[in-house]
Write a structure and sequence with these properties.
The protein is α+β, with helices and mostly antiparallel strands. It has three domains: about 40 residues; about 60 residues, Ubiquitin-like (UB roll); about 130 residues, 3-Layer(aba) Sandwich (Rossmann fold). The chain is built from five helices and 13 strands. A seven-stranded mixed β-sheet has the order 7-8-9-10-11-12-13, with helices on one face. The termini are far apart.
Length: about 270
Amino acid sequence: MLNADMARAKVEEGISLFRAAVLLFALLSGLLVLAFGADWLLRTDNFPVRQVRFEGEFKRVTQQELEAAVVKAVRGNFFLLNLDAVKARVEALPWVYTASVRRQWPQDVHVRFTEQQLAARWSDGAFLNQAGDVVRVTLNEAMPDLPRLEGPEGTGPQVLEYSRKLGQILAVVGLELEQVALTPRRVWRLELKDGMVIVLDRDQPEYKLERFARVYAQSLRHQGGHIARVDLRYANGFAVEAAGVRAAAHRDAPGRLDATGTGRTGAAKKG
């Protein structure tokens, strides 16, 4: 009886070892097949990119420009394609703002892009796009509605944002911005389309311009183009310089300008 049990145990052990060997062989065979398959799939000459599809506005950017930009980056195996490199080449085009790239089965590449939207003219013949980034593009047609902005390097987004805010304040009283400049000392200089120049500092520029706008609507609007310059760099008022005359100082309730340009109120305290 004991010998029979031992024999049965040896048979079962042999069967288990055989099954383990078969399983290991199958596993190794599968891995080998996968390795050869992956090697075949990822060979440069196999599965090349068949077509690159572009999707976008095509107002400023042409199909030919896009194809020329990516032609070298999409050569080779579809699965090994460097999508980031394709994206970078597309976004390097002057009129392209952003791009996204993805593989499209079985062997195509899909590129979606958005074009630059010019928001303003910038120094040295450049432009600001919708994000305030400096872009250098060729403009084939006149765009007179673009405001002219200036500022130190890296201040494009700030100048664009403030030009919009300050322009909205002035628009309420019928004044329209022509140019906005931010000096290295962070002084704002606004040129209006009627020739008026407004100077602001970094201390509460929006509040001070709103205060001036209220006074302008109440008592200065009738002077129109006769105002040459307004200095708002004061804590309690502002100074107005009429065309051809000296400056007049104003507090919150401004005095009347006489023929010599002197106000009836005292000088405002500069902040």
